[in-house]
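Entry 0007
Protein: Xylanolytic transcriptional activator regulatory domain-containing protein
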Amino acid sequence: MSIPESLDSAPGESFLNPREEPYRSRTDQKPSSKFDVSPSSEPWPSLSTSTVGQEAHAPDLDSFENGWNLPNETTGELVELFFDNVQSWLPIIYRPSFDEKFMRLEAPTKTVVNGQSIDPAEVFMITSMFAIAARFSTSPFFKDIAPPDRGDVFATRAATIKDGIIKTIDEPSLEFVKGLVILAFYHFAAGQLAPGSVLTSVCVRFAYDLSLDEVDEDQINDDGTLNDDSLDDVDAWVRREELRRLWWSIWELDTFVATLSRQPYGIERGEMKVFLPVSDHQWVSRTPIRSSPVAYRPDTVWKSLQGSPNQAARAWFLVTNYLMSCIAHAGRQPSRISPDTRAGLESALCCLKLSLPTEFQLRSLYIGQKNFPEGNWIISTHLMILA
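Output (structure tokens):
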């Protein structure tokens, strides 16, 4: 897979976050707080878009001297909004390290460090974060722009930074790959399949360049059993978990693109020597637990987390997503699928439903502010099974 010299990505007309209320009318009227389940405890921004003949005025990003061309307080707000509204479904940024490296306290708020003092790849990552978080902002800086359009200017700037880096890059940094992933998710959420697909192909290439598909190779024996290595080195575990999460986010992007377009997967449906991610709480709180890889055979994938200490909702979602991708792949060539293969896939799906943890029982599921991310993955898992 070759990397194109230029990956220009024209921003689209709207940016609809996939976690927004699907039946909300396009008006500026705020929904009743009774029905507000947004993780940040704030009503979702209006879905209003510019009407015909009414142009949205892009903010002037060249009138500030902090390297971001934003008011200092707005830089801090956008980072907070990313972690409040995006991190739960795109959990690839380890916040303690991010805050220590990139955030500064300027009373009474936190702000992002001067963009001129950090590496261009880090600027690219943070600018991509701004793009995907901007629609949630209440800053007066965006007062003349409809929420779905607020990320456009940041996506355009991120694309410019990215093109400058990618022309001279030898080996990508993790920050650069994270920025690519975030920007790809931004484009897909905005309904821009073409630029998102191109970015996804680059993410897959860089994932293999960084050997992200072999993060846990030393933990998996040839016979499939797992090494009983100690988890005492917490720093190493936190770092390895970060790599796992980056791999699985790229895998999700590739699976989404290939399933939607009915094209071949960039990442083969085969063995991946990468453990499934643990819960966000265990990662951020530095609480190591043993996980396990995906049992990549379609008829045994439902056994991936059997007996594993890791029962994270997202891990189960990824197992379900993997089985879905196998079924989707088989559905592309129905004439070549034997009755036994079809029966095996149907049996695997039934076994998966029966093997889900008790926390996945919808009758007893209550989603509130504290368990919103887990509830999101649980519901997404059930929707994946139904589909």
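Curator remark: The mean pLDDT is 84. The two ends are 31 Å apart (CA to CA).
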